[in-house]
Write a structure and sequence with these properties.
146 residues; alpha+beta; globular
């Protein structure tokens, strides 16, 4: 018998446990170590944020989507802290994110990952279909504490 963990997934920013999210992103996440607090705060305010919560209210996962809610979205800052991994939370978080009403009918939904390719493939993401058309302007020193 499979037991599903009882959780709530919400986009209500007032529920976000900002200290826990900031600690993870600025100290543990390979993609955002050293993230300044003011940059973190602006990133939450200007994004569609998803929090995953236990019945106790403890936040156990997070994802952030940067979007115009019409044609484009970028999925970032997806994480489940180590003590909560292996419970299917990332799968439920991805389902809630990809089925959110504001994220339907988009032409392009991008993300970057170094280690979660299989999770995203299972949710319809693929390598770039035309990488020769994609470019980036990457400032490696932006968003770091000085």
């Amino acid at each position: 018998m499979t037991h599903t963990l009882e959780i709530e997934i919400s986009t209500d920013k007032s529920k976000l446990q900002r200290e826990m999210i900031y600690q993870f992103l600025s100290q543990e996440a390979y993609w955002s170590k050293g993230l300044p607090r003011d940059v973190f705060d602006r990133s939450l305010e200007n994004s569609l944020c998803f929090g995953v919560y236990l019945p106790t209210g403890e936040q156990v996962a997070f994802a952030r989507v940067i979007t115009d809610k019409a044609t484009f979205a970028y999925l970032g800052d997806v994480f489940v802290p180590a003590q909560h991994r292996g419970k299917g939370l990332s799968k439920q978080l991805m389902k809630a994110t990809l089925t959110h009403p504001d994220l339907q009918g988009l032409r392009r939904f991008l993300l970057a990952t170094a280690d979660a390719h299989e999770l995203y493939r299972k949710n319809g993401f693929t390598e770039l279909s035309a990488p020769e058309r994609m470019m980036e302007r990457h400032n490696k020193t932006a968003c770091q504490k000085i």
